[in-house]
Amino acid sequence: MKLSPAEETLMHHLWTAQKAFMKDLLEAYPEPKPAATTIATLLKRMAEKGFVAYKEYGNSREYYPLIDKNQYFTQHVNGLIKTFFNNSASQFASFFTTETNLSGKELDELKAIIEKEIQKKKEQ
């Protein structure tokens, strides 16, 4: 399951805070802030989708993420690769390296990362 853009924004605030009450999440937004009812609706949907949970303290709820940022990002990127690049990581890498404005230094850094991962795989 995927988060909507508005839910992703809220989730980023929650990942940063790690746990927060609705008022804390609302304060994390820049002006103009969304309505409290909007945040409440987003939190309810995100809980229904299994992305967040909460602990109740009287009438207040303290929310916390059930999925970490890396896990969500990994699923999102893998979905993009599957949907747009025929499930081919090499097609994705080719697109990424040719269609983005990477400098020579950035490409060298990517090459070093890939070489490091290749070495890890060989050692397994």
Quick synopsis:
The chain has 124 residues and is mainly alpha-helical.
Number of helices: 6
SS-derived structural category: mainly alpha
**Using DSSP, what is the number of strands?**
3
Shape: elongated
Give an overview in words.
It is a single chain. This protein is mostly helical and 124 residues long. Helices cover 65% and strands 11% of the residues. It has six helices and three strands; from the N terminus they run H-E-H-H-E-E-H-H-H. The chain has helices spanning 5-17, 22-28, 36-49, 69-84, 89-99, 104-123; strands spanning 20-21, 52-57, 60-65. Strands 1-3-2 form a three-stranded antiparallel beta sheet. Strand 2 and strand 3 (60-65) form a beta hairpin. The radius of gyration is 19 Å and the shape is elongated. It starts with a helix and ends with a helix. The model has no long low-confidence stretch (mean pLDDT 93).
Annotation keywords:
mainly alpha, three-stranded antiparallel beta sheet
Topology:
Elements lengths: L4 H13 L2 E2 H7 L7 H14 L2 E6 L2 E6 L3 H16 L4 H11 L4 H20 L1
Helix pairs in contact: 2-3
